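Board notes (copied after class):
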Amino acid sequence: MPNDNKIIARSFGILIGLGLAGFFVLRRALRLAVKRDNGAFIEYFELPPATSPSSAPQPLSGLTFAVKDIFDVEGFVTGFGNPDWAATHEPATRTALAVKYLVDSGATCVGKLHMDELAYSIIGDNKHYGTPVNPAAPTRVPGGSSSGSGVAVAADLVDFSLGTDTAGSVRVPAAFCGILGFRPSHGAVPVIGVIPMAQSFDTVGCFAKDPTILRQVGHILLQLSYTDVRKPQRFLIADDCFELSLIPNEASVGAVIRSIQKLFGRKALQHINLGDYVASAVPSLKVLQKEIGSDMGAISLLRTAMQMIQRWEFKVNHEGWLTTANPNLGPATAARTKAALETTSHLLPLLQRIKDEARYAINDLLKDDMLLVLPTVPDIPPKLNTKPESLEEFRNRAMDLICIAGMSGCCQVTMPAGEHDDVPMAVSLLARQGSDRFLLDTLLALYATVQVEDKADANQRASLSNGHFDAAELAKEKGNAAFKRNDFKNAISHYTDAIRIRGNNPTYYNNRAMAYLQLRSYSEAEADCTKALILDKNSVKAYLRRGTARESMGYYNEADEGHKRLPPATALPCACGRVLSLV
């Protein structure tokens, strides 16, 4: 890799000597260098592992890594993603503590990686240094602000990498590049030697492809000693968060749900409307809603509170440099820094109260070894050269999901969960603050099964195009015929066959739920309707049939909550919400 610098330097000499011809030689040399590392690296060097006094191998021996250009490395300028910052700062006099932990544990640091300007973006582009190429989706953005860190791992340039995550800057690039990303609990990993962005949310995170390596690196960063592995008691599926996603729910979370059922049993799964929970458990959000005159939901209000705190802390940290250096910034970064500089402190007491309430509420929800399952981002990565206004809209939707860990201090890990339109998808697990080891252990236990289920999904989709679709439809029609004969048990058997062949069709679950209702198997009917709604959140019949099941079990409030989700023009056919037509 250092030879790239020699090529470029030699090309500069040719450029001077040959004029225009030299320019084309230089451009070709630069392209070659970029192709070799996908534009991830800003600087190559080597920090060899510390020598161990014992003969025993160190835990990270033989592994290579690189760091985001926000970490101090002794003797090198920390660039913070902006050339004006680099030009106005001296080389670091010490190496960031997190980097030192890894080198002392046997890993070799091989360089610094590109990042978004001032760590103030989740997209992955940079006006000055360009956009690193996403190996998993070259026509789409890599995610940021730890863009180079995600790309370097996805392109197999290093075994793992370091990034920072204030508001998604590890989780987003990991999701976009189809790799693993770990944001630890706030305060769990020291940030000494790391340029601050907003210290109420700043964390040092890491990327890897291999869950074993991610776990090893996480343990070194967290400075944890060995403890017994704990088994998760419950996985809470945040249904409303998946409804924010534009990706079909079965595609995004189906493999994860099936994997949890296989490894931990069906009883380990529960469903939650996280927005409703936050609205009830974080009462100060209503005060903020009145202050800003907004009709946003609870999660969006939580995101707004986080962004307001982030702006204020960024201003406190960097106002002096911004006003003195007057740096050249990209348009999006310039707009955000301007908003930060205009921020006042008058709402800070309220915002801190919201943060305290959210931290208590989310951590209380996840006590007793419970995990929250939610989408990492609301959609697949935006395409390169997407219009700025579309990127900003995407950013706000993504921040609705990102703010949960930020405002609670919880740890979160994102993992690949198949592909949609040949682009990576991701699902996250979130554990209470301080449960980092438990989270990494659970990921290790779950990851292989999720990948097997993802592969099975891909094979199933391929099979459907070869005639299996017709077999599933035939089974459904047999079920419909049995239902019309009032042979409900046989109808359930046929619908089950259809589901076995094509498990991502909400109609099959809807029809089986209807048969279960006739047999007064209300719990099974409710479960099938919930599955149908995961697959199609606009299924009116699933809402109504689930309402019938819940009313029949005496869950009147839950039934009413489901009816409130119906489109305004929907008329209930009877007081109990029963709908008996076949599909």
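Comment from the instructor: Residues 468-564 form a domain with the Serine Threonine Protein Phosphatase 5, Tetratricopeptide repeat fold (CATH 1.25.40.10). The first helix runs from residue 2 to 18.
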